[in-house]
Design brief:
The protein has 258 residues and is mostly helical. Among the domains are: 88 residues, Winged helix-like DNA-binding domain superfamily/Winged helix DNA-binding domain (Arc Repressor Mutant, subunit A, Orthogonal Bundle); 89 residues, Alpha Horseshoe (Serine Threonine Protein Phosphatase 5, Tetratricopeptide repeat). It has eleven helices and six strands. A three-stranded antiparallel beta sheet has the order 1-2-3, with no helix packed on it. Strands 4-6-5 form a three-stranded antiparallel beta sheet. The longest helix has 22 residues. The chain starts with a strand and ends with a helix.
Length: 258
C-alpha cells in the first residue's frame, strides 16, 4: 500500500489499483490523519479540519464516524484504530510518498557529498518524480506542512542542479537555479550555485551581476552580509579573469552543502 499526497490525494492498494478520494470530506479526514501518521488525532481536530469555514453541523461527531467507516471500507483491516475521542492511522515505513521523497533526498545529498554526481542526479530525479502536483491538491489544510514540503522540493532541485553542474551540464543547472532564486530570493545556496555555474560557462559579467544582486537583497531586506559560500564564489568571480574552472566551482558548491 502507498499513500500519495504529493498531488491529489490517492491510495494505491496491494494489487496496484489506485483509489482517488477527490476533495470529499472523507478525503479531508484521511489527509488529516496522514499529516500525523501513527499518532492519535482528536475528533475535535478532525471536525475543525472538515468544516474549516462553514458552520459545524450538530451531527459532526456522527458524520466523522461515518467518514471513518467509509475509509475503513477502502483500506485494509485495522488500518484506522479508534481510541477515546480520537483515531489513529497506521502507516508503515515507506508507505507515505513524502517519507520516500525525504529518504531519497537524504540519499542524493550523501551521493553528492561523496562525489558521485551521477547517482546523486538519478536519485534526486527519482524523488522529484513523486510529485504529481501541489501536495494534497484541492484540500485546504491549515498548518506549516505545505512550507515544509515546498522546501523539500527546492532542496531536491538544488541537489539535482549541483549534480548536473558537477557532471559538466552547467546550462541545465543554470535554468533550475534561476527558478530557485526567483522562488526564494533569500536562498543563498541557490545563488552561490547559480553564480558558480555562470562562471563555469564563462559568463563572468552575468555572474558578477547576480552576485551584486544578492548582496543588495541581503543588505536591503535582512541587513546581513553574504555567507561563506556566497563570499567564496563572489571572490572568485571578482578575481582575475581566467578560464572557467569546473573543479573550483564544484569545491565552492561543497561549501554550500556543509
Amino acid at each position: 500500500m502507498l499513500f500519495h499526497v504529493l498531488g491529489p490525494l490517492a491510495v494505491r492498494g496491494r494489487n496496484g489499483g489506485v483509489m482517488r478520494l477527490g476533495t470529499s470530506k472523507p478525503a479531508v479526514v484521511l489527509a488529516t490523519l496522514l499529516l500525523q501518521p501513527n499518532a492519535w488525532v482528536g475528533v475535535d481536530q478532525l471536525i475543525a479540519r472538515t468544516w474549516p469555514e462553514a458552520a459545524v453541523p450538530p451531527s459532526a461527531v456522527a458524520n466523522v464516524k461515518t467518514y471513518v467507516w467509509r475509509l475503513r471500507g477502502m483500506l485494509p483491516t485495522a488500518r484506522i484504530e479508534t481510541g477515546p475521542g480520537s483515531y489513529r492511522l497506521r502507516v508503515a515505513a515507506g508507505e507515505l510518498d513524502t517519507d520516500r521523497a525525504a529518504d531519497l533526498a537524504a540519499e542524493a545529498e550523501r551521493f553528492l557529498a561523496r562525489g558521485d554526481a551521477t547517482a546523486a542526479a538519478t536519485t534526486a530525479a527519482r524523488a522529484l518524480d513523486l510529485w504529481r502536483g501541489r501536495p494534497f491538491d484541492g484540500l485546504h489544510l491549515p498548518g506549516d506542512w505545505a512550507a515544509e514540503l515546498d522546501e523539500l522540493h527546492r532542496d531536491l532541485r538544488q541537489t539535482l542542479a549541483e549534480a548536473r553542474l558537477a557532471l559538466g551540464d552547467a546550462r541545465r543547472a543554470v535554468g533550475s537555479l534561476r527558478e530557485l532564486t526567483a522562488e526564494d530570493p533569500f536562498r543563498e545556496e541557490s545563488w552561490a550555485a547559480l553564480i558558480g555555474a555562470l562562471h563555469v560557462l564563462g559568463r563572468r559579467a552575468e555572474a558578477l551581476a547576480n552576485y551584486r544582486e544578492i548582496r543588495k537583497i541581503l543588505a536591503d531586506e535582512l541587513g546581513v552580509p553574504p555567507g561563506p559560500a556566497l563570499t567564496e564564489v563572489g571572490d572568485r568571480v571578482l578575481g582575475p579573469r581566467g578560464a572557467p574552472d569546473l573543479f573550483r566551482a564544484r569545491a565552492a558548491l561543497a561549501v554550500v552543502a556543509t
